[in-house]
């Protein structure tokens, strides 16, 4: 296991400190470093808060800033932030209009975010949107069904723009829940990852194998397959995704090819090229695109493909200005 | 060798096509796909052109757009673009004020860019800035001395802003040459890379080894060392860099930690944190920062540290708006 780190115990804290120092124009630490929040909060808007285990950077801290999240909490590697962290984020970010918490569908995250809502709900208006875009993790039949993966970025971007525009809490929740039904992701890994604390690999692949349908915590997928050409891999991912998503007239497609940590930009663009061709040949024109390393699984060599079918309003919210460490436009 | 690719022959073309399709708001292919250029050229400004071998993405194509490059040429992997490609870029990008070519200091690149200048110089005002920020490659004593690596991004950003502001060709060249004397980079690799065409690794490292001082083509560095804690690695890089750069009063420091392709954001931020602390303890306050995967060596697990000492004017040019696929602000 060769990683740029000092000790497994201090790895997350050192990395997050580096992040905050590098992006001090956007973000500051909250009290006792329990969360990262925007340097300048906007009074009277609903605060959008997210969080999750470390090891997925730049998600979520890289999405804190104008037009996206107000605060984010980072847990230990692949471990939910604590209720105390989430409550700290709520207390710092709520400027009076309440908070919407964006939570990825994992038992640990749900438990801690729900507990925070219960504990802080008497002093703050709070609600939650659960993201569950990962097709493959539904197949195992365990736990709460589909997990939240790269599609979370899309939910956070669109909700962030809507919150910036003054949308109230109940409407934001409806928007988020509607969105979540129209986003699908699937991932593939060329190697397993080593978790620093345990020094164990999540799974081990031979030189000619790949793992189809992996999650972002190195959860094994539904099938170990022989390593293949990019077009073959991409066809399998896109076929599964397009078979599972409802394509209704008037909906507009956003294609997001995400690197899982160890895959360079050139390979992601090649994969995007194949995915776009495949999906457009199925009669779904791609109107918005994102390619890059945004939702990682430590240093996993792999990628995920996400397709979102969006309304005109959601496309406009996607296009709205955003100023965070990881996403910035126009 | 597990990479997302179809064939070694088509890899670069497919990846670049994906890049152009993903960023069609910024860029288009030039005639016969010989170069990538801005969708909208600005008439009457000096055109800034760069290029180099593939395998370093997002450099340089990711830097094409408002406030940075006007066009970029992509060669085969780790191979200079041809004079014919460079001439095509000159012909498409020159709107009357001439072109400045930014070239990394490698024999192949210099030869082809010089040849293009010779061949197109009767029809266009052309000049060249050579970037040579890599400390380590000077030690080998071969070729033309220091190579150009991640510091090229800084030169292209600052010259791009100056060109956008109307700076004439001769002044841009002076600005670029001045800058180049005040930028130093050094890299480290935790593994060698496999070049797809040859299926050969550039060098092979054991599980407890690292290569100190690597170039971006997988050139071996000056020393194979036992793998160490991040702070030890970073201290070595930063010690070498700060010993080699002139720190003069009034100059302001930009610190750039760059991923070489296979290193995830969390590790880069951790390295940045250590580098910033080390350099600031040497009495050099960091005023601007960049952390991310911008100048790669295929899927190499590794990183480079770049320090630039900038004038107030250069800092203002660094801060000026930029709208490219890879760099975008304010």
What would you note in describing this structure?
- Chains A, B: Its EC number is 2.7.1.121, 2.7.1.-.
- Chains A, B: One of its GO terms (molecular function) is glycerone kinase activity.
- Chains A, B: It is an enzyme of class 2 (transferase).
- The structure is a homodimer of 330-residue chains.
- Chain A folds into two domains: 11-181 and 319-329, Dihydroxyacetone kinase, domain 1 (Rossmann fold, 3-Layer(aba) Sandwich); 183-314, Hypothetical Protein Tm841, Chain: A,domain 3 (2-Layer Sandwich).
- Helix content of chain A is 31%, strand content 25%.
- Chain A has eight helices and 17 strands.
- In chain A, a hairpin with a 6-residue loop joins strand 1 and strand 2.
- In chain A, helix 2 crosses helix 3 (107-120) and helix 4 (151-164) runs antiparallel to helix 5.
- Chains A and B meet through helix 1, helix 6, helix 7, strand 14 and strand 17 of A and helix 1, helix 6, helix 7, strand 14 and strand 17 of B.
For this entry, give a set of tags.
homodimer, 330 residues, alpha+beta, Rossmann fold, Hypothetical Protein Tm841, Chain: A,domain 3, 2 domains, six-stranded mixed beta sheet, 8 helices, 17 strands, 31% helix, globular
Poorly predicted residue ranges of chain A: none
Nearest-integer average pLDDT of chain A: 95
Q: Write the CATH fold name of the largest domain in chain A.
A: Rossmann fold
- Please compute the radius of gyration of chain A using only Cα atoms: 19 Å
Main-sheet strand order of chain A equals 1-2-5-3-6-7
Helices and strands, with pairings:
2 copies of one chain form a homodimer.
Chain A (H helix, E strand, L loop, with lengths): L10 H12 L4 E3 L6 E3 L8 E8 L10 E2 L4 E7 L5 H11 L5 E6 L2 H14 L5 E6 L19 H14 L4 H12 L2 E7 L4 E2 L4 E2 L7 E4 L10 E4 L3 H15 L7 E8 L5 H17 L4 E7 L9 E9 L1 H8 L2 E3 L3 E2 L1
Helix pairs in contact in A: 2-3, 4-5, 4-8, 6-7
